[in-house]
Design brief:
heterodimer, A: 247 residues, alpha+beta, Alpha-Beta Plaits, three-stranded mixed sheet, two-stranded antiparallel sheet, 19% strand, B: 283 residues, mainly alpha, Formate dehydrogenase/DMSO reductase fold, 11 helices, 69% helix, binds iron/sulfur cluster, transmembrane helix (chain B), membrane (chain B), transmembrane (chain B), dimethyl sulfoxide reductase activity (chain B)
Chain lengths: 247, 283
Amino acid sequence: MTDLPETRSTKKLGLVIDLDTCVGCHACVVACKAWNTENYGAALADTDAHGAAPSGAFVNRIHSYEVTGDGAPRIVHFPKSCLHCEDAPCVTVCPTGASYKRAEDGIVLVNEDQCIGCGLCAWACPYGAREQDPVAKVMKKCTLCVDRIDNENLPEADRIPACVRTCPSKARHFGDLGDPDSHVSQLVEARGGMDLAPEQGTRPVNKYLPPRPKEDEIDVLAPLLAPVAEEPKGWLGWLDRALDRLG
Amino acid sequence: MHPAASLILFSTLSGAGFGLLALIGAGLARTTGWAGLAEAALAFALAIAGLAASTFHLGRPERALKAFREWRSSWLSREAWLAAATLSIMAITTLIRLAGLPALPLGLVGSALALATVAATAMIYAQLRTVPRWNHWTTPAIFLGHALTAGTLLAGHRLPAAILLAALAVAQFAAWHAGDRRTGATTRESATGLGPRVRPFEAPHTSDNYLTREMVFVVARKHRVRLRSIGLVLAYLAPLACLAIPPAPLALPLAALLHIGGTLIVRWLFFADAEHTVALYYR
Ligand code: SF4
Ligand code: SF4
Ligand code: SF4
């Protein structure tokens, strides 16, 4: 059934991504690819992996942007994966019912056995969050690691998406965005978390924390770097004069 | 968007086939005797060839029948149902007529279903908010216009076909013009949330991928103008000129052939011209 679920729980699992702290290391991309190649569904395949034109399916990718403004220009690394939209257009266009949104927690998934590989859901997604697997020819997308977050066989600390678990700069946060008291909702509240392309009407669950303004921070160490006095005094003054006398 | 040969063939051939079926159903084409049989056979062949071509676009064509499931929400599924319903009803209509019995009421149902099929095909594209050029009522209008024009040419109605060709040329030109200015509400700024002065510094991957191959496809502007001119001439003006030749047995089939050939180019542009919002993340 590819209508969106009519009755939903208040639970909305998703990611909060901090554009201020992401350093663009792509560790989450590798962790995602590795986990999703060994577990849930068809392996995320590559073509010509060791040849001249390697290509492959990834469901988490990091863009980098240059942002110029009044202050110094800066590079912002921009991780992008499925936003698990509340009004997911990718779900309603699917002719087979392969694409669906889970009523109990809002995760958007693909039942790969039912997918005919028509690609329409990838066309309907404004964010480029879906890629057809080049070998299995079915649609792949971020599952929020459904096979980790509910997996009792894993240690408690690992029951979060692979990307969140691996991020060295803690730029990725996972939790229930439907609960205003959860740590992710609090983060969004405190940092002004935003939706990507809100005018598309998709109502994304994932939120992005904008980069903090840099101006104030540049000055923290500045007093320690005050320039050397033009006319040295004290011990430095004596040294200066002594060296001068040596000719 | 990537102009896939399978989709261009599908929408062009099926469009012409369902257009002709719409005319046959309404009794506006030869419906009896050998001529009627030949006309119906041509319509079925075009429609079915197009549908067969469309399965080549699927990653898993062996599962194509699953597409019938979600007609309540999906235009692709509705199109599958409408196509199947049209073909069955028109097959029955044709058999009744070949037996020399009247079948206009059933034919009219088939005719309406044939047009609905073409409209559903167009809605697969027109529903996509991610592709501003398609996301407009002109998309179903142009698809229906092509289906009816091709149908009328194939049914051999000289004057109506000439009028439709002229009208369609103007409509297609206007749709291109309007589409050029319809950029949609999404910008790089809204897509990234990074303010007005943001530009791509580095892509996430070093070679192409599914997204760039499928959705970040652009035609060079100079080619666009050239191809539009070729399309206009081949799809509309050349067939029009053919129809002006005094009645000769070859004029109509030649006009129909030129029109369908030209429609292939116009459809190529329909895909190649269309830009997807995901391109904003790359360019
Ligand atoms: S980000 Fe794209 S794939 Fe994910 S739910 Fe939203 S529309 Fe669907
Ligand atoms: S590619 Fe698969 S999941 Fe996507 S719309 Fe087609 S059948 Fe549904
Ligand atoms: S692992 Fe963390 S810091 Fe590295 S690219 Fe991913 S989100 Fe950014």
